[in-house]
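User: I'm preparing a small set of examples for a lab meeting where we compare how different chains pack in three dimensions. I only have the primary sequence for this one, and I'd like the structure in token form so I can line it up with the others. Please keep the answer compact; I'll paste it straight into my notes.
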Amino acid sequence: MTGTDAEVILLRDQMSVIWGNPEFQRLLNRHSTRERVCALEVGGGVGILSGLVAALTGAEVVSTDYSSYDGTVTSANLQGILQRHAAQIGEVLYAAPADVDAASSRVRFETCSAEDLPHADETFDFVFSLNAFEHIGDPVVALAEIRRVLKPGGCAFIQFSPIFTADDGSHLYSQGLLAAPWCALLHTKEEIVEQVRASGKDAGRVDDILRSLNGFPPQYYRDLFANSGLEIQTLIEFSGYVLPGAGQSPEFEKAKALFSAVDLAVLGFKALLRK
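Assistant: Understood. Below is the structure token output for the 275-residue chain.
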């Protein structure tokens, strides 16, 4: 896969967060006609979703991530990505070319922990986060920080998967390394490394991938949202399996000794919360 191919896949994934989520669309539409809107992304990565949000709303967006922004992730690089795919963005999201072109200038990148946001209380009109909460070490503190920096009446859109107890909770299958359901529940790291090597893949990234996961099951997240101090406007658990045949596999039978079949099928969560 070339860098350009990976860029296209990432862009499509980020656009799908918008056009595949009516709740997020309504949140963005609510802010697109207002002036001086400030938004925060938690776990922004290279900032594509932040750029799309800036293009659709005109908001000033702060894209944060715990990984160091070492100069390779910049507004200029984001502008290049958005310009290369402006036609597709316009076709899918109905964003005007001028809005797409100007969007990167309204995105600022900051390296910080989600559990310690360097922003004043009641700074942001809305917050959004995609596929970060299964990696955050203390989601309770992170959500409390989001609540703190939200303005009164502001909303947070949070979506993430797969969680640790899902069939690809290890994230190794999605990374092209190992097609073994529930391997992080059933095997030690050393056993997983050997399985990856036996399959002919490079096991060099296994430790970093596994260490990035917080290991929390579905009930943790149910309690997280219920006790957040934020009004739950939408809370959806989405279920299923990532790996083909996972629900009929021997590993599924073994994993049911640890968690219920219902919880093992929970892939992730989508929440729209209001302060």
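A couple of notes for your slides: Residues 3-160 form a domain with the Rossmann fold fold (CATH 3.40.50.150). DSSP finds 13 helices and seven strands in the chain.

User: Perfect, thanks.
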